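Retro notes, item 3 of 5
We never archived the inputs for the S-adenosylmethionine complex last cycle. Fixing that now. Sequence and ligand:
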Amino acid sequence: MKFFRNWGQPPFLKDIAEVFSRRVRSFGETPTGVLWKSSEGQQLRFEILVGILADIKIPEPVSISDFGCGYGAMFDFLSDLPELSKMIYTGYDISEEMIHAAWQRIHDPRATFTEAMKIDRAADFTFVSGTYNLKLLVEDEPWNDYVKSSLKALWPMTKKGLAFNMLDKEHPDQGEGLYYADAGTFMDFCSELSDNVALIDDYPLNEWTIFVRRD
Ligand SMILES: C[S@@+](CC[C@H](N)C(=O)[O-])C[C@H]1O[C@@H](n2cnc3c(N)ncnc32)[C@H](O)[C@@H]1O
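Structure as it came back at the time:
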């Protein structure tokens, strides 16, 4: 954990940004362009993540941060939900080309996109889908520390709830350059942030989702 305590930009993020920029240049604003295998999987992740809104009084307008937003697919999904019709959405991404693609594609006064690796404005809900999956050549231990540092930085910028997903360590077929995380370790970590933490791992993807709520 010590290594990332006073981090500026970890050196490996530049390479990761470059991979995603190249991806969107080659495959366009599609699930493949953000390294997802299918549109169904991408949408199912969004459906699971918004489960955090259940049983919470949603403020109006509700503010939403999408950390690692890619080309803004989650905005499309959220904008169809009646309870979020008055949202203020901000998508953050380290890839300049992803942010450019999102701005080109989405012209909605509720949406803003920013090239950044950190969130500096608090929102009611923070969503993170797939952002911690690609680690390239970084070893597991420093990557695990980096993810925890990042979540720790997201939490004070989250007024009501944070929902994030990661690939599951228990999965037998593991792709190269990807990070597979232990759900128990991250549940323990998130329990230090809040007493209200839930694990969702009963959906048909090789991953899990954690909800961290403030109350
Ligand atoms: C697998 S893609 C998913 C994109 C989007 N969430 C979706 O589901 O369509 C992960 C995205 O996270 C971005 N990303 C990775 N690390 C990041 C970081 N530290 N800060 C901001 N964005 C990051 C990548 O550039 C990439 O666009």
